[in-house]
Amino acid sequence: MPLAKLYQKRRQERRNYFLKYAQYIFNDHLVLALFFLLGALAFQYRAWLKTVTEPSLWADGIFLLTGLVIILLGQAKTYIQAADTMFLLPMEASFTAWFKRSFFQSLLSPLLWLAAYLLVAYPYLWASRAWTWLELIPLAISLAIASFAIMVTNFEAYHFKVVKMAQWRWGLIIVSGLAIALALASWPWLGLLLMTVSCLTLFLSQRSPFAQEKSTWFWEKLVSDEEKRQQNNDKLMALFVDIKTVSQQIKRRSYLDRLLLSAKKAKTPFYYLYQRSFWRSPEFFPIWARLTILGLVFLVFLPDAWLSLGIILVVQYFSHFQIWPLFQHFDRHPMVLTAPVGGTDRGRGFLRFVAQPMLIQGMLFIIFAFIFQPWRFALMLVLGLVLIGGLILPLIFKKKIEKANSKRFF
User: Fold this and answer.
1) The whole model's pTM is what?
2) Fewer C-beta neighbours within 10 Å, C or N terminus of the chain?
3) Contact, 108 vs 137, CB < 8 A?
4) Burial class (CB in 10 A: 0-12, 13-18, 19+), 83
5) Which of 6, 171, 19, 181 is nearest to 97 (CA)?
6) In whole angstroms, what is the distance from residue 61 CA to residue 194 CA?
7) DSSP assignments along 164-218, one per residue
């Protein structure tokens, strides 16, 4: 099969894989929830814009940081597989067209995000600085050039230049931040000039990653990066549906070791196992941590107290409900199957364990609430967290544990 057709086939397979689960992810309930959430955020944004009469330092900071994050969103979608290093490696010189096509299709995603970002930010720029669309054009071009240059460094790194391209990437991030800052200071054309000069310097010093003489590729990094990209996409979809994800390795986080009890102090072996499985998990802990950070951001920056309260309670619920699959994580482990412990110890250990992340997250929310919100809001949040973490989730978990234990044969 020609490489062009093989690339298109793999791209289509990955698209079909996403569409297979998208019909379950974007169901009526989620679409309705997103509709109300985006509507509420748009309403609050519009109400806040009416109070804006001059540039706001914190709003400018969010605008700048968001722009830099979007620039870095671009990832190389190469669709390379591990078997290619054996079966397609003799055709390495012919892969330039493959990667060139991958480059432009990978660039589409950050450009679309940039367009949405500028579209959302424009009302603020108009209200605070009386910008017109003509003043937005040089900033948009600067960010598009930055995204293009970042993508060039991503592909150039596959020519065994990982460290050098990482340095270039940091330089481009700094220049992009300066370009956004100059635009906010009413000098967008100067920012565009600075961005253009930086990118031309990159192109003149490194040339195109698809030049004829650059036909040798870092296949190990190509495979690992593509597997990691697809794995991250699968983890995101796994928040909503059960999918067959790529296996991952346990990662010790030494800074969390103080949260772990020894086998003697744990009293039950399942509490000991669940603790380590969660705090060192490559799946459950990262999701919990991100949702916790997201809740703290909403708590600090969302102006509507009731909306903020609702979002935090939803975060508290879902960040711990997603831990439930961990209960059956050891079902097929031979040592657990032969150990003289029953389902009661297993359920008790899980309930005792899950109280730990709930308590830690709840304390973080309460501390931030008393610092950044009125005391009445903080008290309402305490009541809500006690209701979710002390009553609703334990009852749900107990019913699920009883149902799971009734199906076990030991």
Assistant:
1) 0.68
2) N
3) no
4) exposed
5) 6
6) 20
7) HHHHHHHHHHHHHHHHHHHHHTT-HHHHHHHHHHHHHHHHHHH--TT-TT-----
